[in-house]
Amino acid sequence: MAVFALVLAVILFLLGLAGTLLPVLPGVTLIYGGMVLYGILTGFTDLNTTFYILQGLAVLLVFAIDYLATAAGSRRYGGSKYAAWGAIIGTIIGILTLGPFGIIIGPFVGAVTAELIQGKQANQAARTGFGTIIGLLGGTVLKLIIEVLMIIWFFMAIV
């Protein structure tokens, strides 16, 4: 049963990593789900409560990075706090309306729109929008690093 559980967990890990790059799949949720499924199928013999709590905190960190990195990129490129909020709101609306494409288009449009409403010039608003994309890409790299560390810790814990 342990081998079957491990195979299922690895499949979910791979899907989760793919989901971080292709936002059609819920990346880190699949990774954590693989760990929980492994625990259920093995009777939680290898992984304890502390492991799951700390991994859960890592999941929350990855969720926070989704929003904070985009907002930070916006601010770094001269965006106002309104642009940061616009990027966050744009991300949410973009995902809901455009699916996977919304994760890139939404923050850009949200930040640019907020800056234009604030009376900024179009070129500065576009620069801020570009910053949101840079933040998004940086956040994706950071999320991948955290997810890989989560998976490494999983394997270290079950060996």
Plain-language structure description:
By secondary structure, the chain is an all-alpha fold. It has one domain. It contains six helices and no strands. Helix 2 (27-41) packs antiparallel against helix 3, helix 3 crosses helix 4 (81-98) and helix 4 packs antiparallel against helix 5 (102-117). It is elongated. The two termini are 15 Å apart. The mean pLDDT is 91.
Concise structural overview:
This protein has 159 residues and is an all-alpha fold.
Task: Annotate the secondary structure layout.
Elements lengths: L1 H20 L5 H15 L7 H28 L4 H18 L3 H16 L4 H37 L1
Helix pairs in contact: 1-2, 1-6, 2-3, 3-4, 3-6, 4-5, 5-6
Features:
159 residues, 84% helix, mainly alpha, elongated, single chain
* Helix percent band: over 70%
Main sheet summary: none
Order of helices and strands: HHHHHH
- What's the number of helices? 6
N- and C-termini, Cα separation: 15 Å
